[in-house]
Design goal:
The protein is mostly beta strands and 802 residues long. 5% of the residues lie in helices and 59% in strands.
């Protein structure tokens, strides 16, 4: 670990000492009470007790008791929330023991079905909860990763440069294939590539009630393993009253979004329907990087005090002009918005662009949930899901060889023509379906969850030529590639949290996951099947020293299977192994009335991490190779301070070290084509900045006018794993300014005007890129490509709620 990281650890310890000393100066009065159910006066354990306009909070113990110590004598407003009870806000005093009763929910809560994939205050995991209000502040049309940009250890990328279309998110340097995403507990990551294509979920933020963002391994979850983070979305929850909203926004690059949302509230004491429709258009910052995105969501449910059944449909359809090639280093300095996609020269040497060099895809999600309270301690949950995806991307291929596409050469007189301009489409049609289930048991000091999932994926990959200049139109479309894969994924888990005492809690999480993948009917060597069996144990300890101080420790083992391409381009002798990782997390929370601080240290130790090395295997393909030993280590600090009821600041800072202990780079001599191997020790992992920070200052003026200034700093990143200073993404510092004005109008719920000015200092930066290299004799040549991001740009919107 380098000097910088060591210094941060030292400074963190000094901060802890300072906080303990500061506590001694506070008055040692206690705000305490006991929370019980209005229905039968039984104690309510696990309720979250928060002081209004303060970061001080605590959780009720097994007998419903809570205590917030070290505050001045007086009366304070608190809110009490619990998944099975209505939230209650009440004023209580420090001078007496307060007895508080809360009302059980008339309807079983939606969030019970997603508890199995979420962390809580006792789990020992590093996580952040994002509310609907947090998302609405900046939801003016950009994709969800952009709305999460201010979270700890996060770096966001955008192919089009303005956050609309193809976007991605990295966490602690981990790429999107290592970030597990679920919607209502149902896996979203593509079963084969492990990617999440947010472009297929346009405006999903408008259908989201809350998000839990877990860093590291986190809880056992569904789908591909979480090797960097988990993003768990919960869609719109039950609303007691009818509502409606219309949202329209517009801004730079002809970007606009129109959203209509509605809900019926509770009908006939039991039924509810909610829906949303959205349309987003943008020209993009990059040339021709247009996006046309349609989406809708619809849910309906039956609720009562002991059970609910709920159906959810989410659909997204996108058409985007391709902007995924990036631009060369020369173009970065001379023409930042250049896009090579669809570019060709006609017979007269004129530069042309193919109009339909586009990506076209639709993905539909169908979910059905049922939950029932068996008794006051036990709840059963089951969910059925089906996801249908189908689409293609189209490309103009100038002077393409017929033999590459299974077409015969054409003879015209004495001339044989073996190539011409052609247009191809690469199609994917996939079906993903399955079930998840869990039993939740809670009694006194024990919280137990037992469940699992069984999912099946069927994916058909087929490529077609739709026209070629020489061939007659009657033979098209011509299918030149057709392959199918199936994948089953079954897991079982057992999670338990046990309160040893009022201060000490232990958590255990055991998961068994079995994956069977039949990845191709056109396997290179006939071995088209792989079966993997993973055991993933995790455990945590939480110690609540007082209402101010909490310590936690987490350790877990996780595994992750190779992706489809790893199998397709290899034979049984060169096939990579599955990856494994042991994650250690240790943290400290400090909360008083106006100040909240979290310090989290992590060490993620990888075995057989899969990375591109430039190596060519036995069939001549570039492959990802297992690197035996690598790690990510760092410290994440989060600070929130409430200066006044109208002014608060929140900030986070990550300092990390990301290393491969021994790494071999494979390249070649461009003159002789001889292979060259370069060996490195303790080299930095690509796309892993050692510093990431964010800060947001919020000010409320006259109750209905709000302003915010947000900053983001991302340190230097290497484009490969050689720590090559010639192939880097420069560090960048961004500042955004936003504001909103709620206009009080009689007869409607609210009318709100919003605006956002992004990158106000017009920083020219790139958030993503790639590189390759070769040698000419002893001279190394590095070829770097970048994805430029927009300079200063703006968005404005209006929201009407009724």
């Amino acid at each position: 670990m380098n000097f910088t990281v060591k210094s941060t650890i030292k400074n963190g310890l000094l901060l802890l000492t300072l906080l303990f000393n500061v506590e001694l100066t506070f008055a040692q009065n206690t705000l305490q009470g006991t929370v019980s159910s209005e229905k039968d006066q039984s104690p309510v354990s696990g309720a979250i007790v928060r002081m209004s306009n303060s970061y001080a909070n605590t959780i009720t113990d097994a007998v419903g008791h809570f205590a917030i110590k070290g505050i001045a004598t007086g009366t304070y407003e608190i809110s009490i929330s619990h998944v099975a009870f209505e939230t209650k806000t009440i004023s209580i005093s420090t001078v007496s023991e307060n007895k508080i009763s809360i009302q059980p929910k008339v309807y079983l809560a939606d969030e019970i079905t997603i508890n199995a994939t979420r962390a809580d205050q006792k789990s020992g995991a590093a996580f952040t909860n994002i509310t609907k209000e947090d998302l609405e502040k900046n939801n003016l049309g950009q994709d969800l990763p952009v709305l999460l940009n201010s979270l700890p250890s996060v770096v966001v990328t955008s192919d089009a440069g303005n956050g609309v279309g193809y976007t991605g998110i990295r966490v602690r340097g981990n790429d999107p294939t290592r970030v597990n995403v679920t919607i209502n507990g149902v896996p979203v990551n593509d079963a084969e590539s492990h990617q999440v294509y947010w472009v297929d979920l346009p405006d999903i933020a408008s259908s989201t009630d809350n998000i839990q963002f877990q860093r590291g391994l986190g809880n056992s979850t569904n789908g591909a393993g979480a090797f960097g983070a988990s993003i768990n979305l919960q869609t719109t929850k039950i609303s007691q009253a009818a509502y409606g909203s219309i949202n329209s926004s517009f801004g730079s690059f002809n970007t606009n979004k129109n959203t209509l949302s509605f809900g019926t509230g509770i009908l006939n004491n039991h039924f509810t329907i909610d829906g949303r429709m959205s349309l987003i258009n943008s020209d993009g910052y990059i040339d021709r990087a247009t996006s046309t995105l349609h989406s809708f969501s619809l849910s309906g449910g039956y609720y009562d005090s002991k059970q609910f059944i709920r159906a959810v449909v989410i659909s997204g359809k996108e058409k985007t002009y391709q902007a995924w090639y990036g631009i060369s280093q020369d173009s970065l300095s001379s023409n930042r918005t250049y896009n090579p996609a669809g570019e060709y020269y006609d017979a007269f040497g004129n530069l042309r662009y193919y109009d339909n060099q586009t990506d076209n895809y639709q993905q539909d999600y169908y979910q059905l949930f049922y939950s029932r309270t068996i008794n006051k301690n036990l709840t059963a949950n089951v969910a059925l899901h089906y996801t249908k995806g189908k689409g293609y991307y189209e490309e103009f291929k100038p002077m393409a060889s017929f033999s590459d596409y299974g077409l015969a050469d054409v003879a015209i007189g004495d001339t044989t023509i073996s190539a011409s301009d052609l247009i191809r489409q690469k199609w994917l049609s996939n079906d993903f379906y399955g079930a998840t289930w869990s039993f939740d048991y809670n009694k006194e000091s024990l919280d137990l969850k037992f469940g699992g999932a069984a999912n099946n994926y069927v994916g058909r990959h087929y490529n077609k030529i739709i026209s070629a200049a020489i061939y007659p139109a009657s033979i098209f479309p011509f299918t030149y590639y057709d392959d199918e894969a199936t994948k089953t994924d079954v897991n079982f888990f057992l999670k338990a949290t046990y309160d040893v005492s009022k201060k000490l809690s232990l958590t255990g999480d055991l998961q068994q996951r079995i994956v069977n993948y039949n990845f191709s009917k056109n396997s290179l060597d006939g071995t088209a099947e792989a079966t993997l069996n993973f055991f993933n144990p995790k455990g945590g300890i939480t110690y609540q020293l007082s209402s101010k101080h909490k310590f936690y420790f987490f350790a877990g083992l996780g595994h992750k299977e190779p992706v489809r391409d790893d199998y397709l381009v290899s034979t049984i002798t060169t096939r990579p192994d599955a990856e494994s990782m042991i994650d250690y997390e240790a943290g400290y929370n400090y909360k008083v009335k106006k100040l909240a601080i979290t310090i989290n240290a992590y060490y993620m130790n990888y075995q057989n991490q899969l990375i591109l090395t430039g190596k060519i295997n036995d069939v001549g393909e570039y492959v990802r190779e297992n690197v035996k030993n690598s790690y990510r280590a760092g410290i994440e600090t989060e600070i929130q301070y409430q200066f006044t009821k109208d002014l608060f600041v929140k900030a986070n800072f990550t300092l990390s070290e990301n290393k491969i202990k021994e790494y071999n780079e494979y390249t070649y001599d461009a003159d002789t084509y001889d292979q060259i191997i370069n060996s490195y020790k303790n080299t930095t992992i690509a796309f892993s900045p050692s510093i990431i920070s964010a800060m947001e200052l919020n000010y409320t003026l006259l109750k209905n006018i709000q302003f915010a200034v947000a900053t983001k700093y991302v340190g230097k990143q290497y484009l490969d794993n050689t720590t090559n200073e010639n192939s880097i993404l420069d560090s960048y510092f961004l500042t955004n300014f936003s504001g909103s004005y709620k206009i009080p109008i009689k007869g409607i719920k609210s009318l709100e005007l919003k605006f956002m000015l992004n990158n106000i200092f017009d920083k020219m930066y790139s958030a993503n890129g790639y590189t390759y290299n070769d040698y000419s004799g002893t001279t190394r040549n590095d070829y770097n490509y970048y994805y430029p991001q927009a300079g200063i740009n703006w968005m404005a919107g209006i929201t009407l709620k009724f």
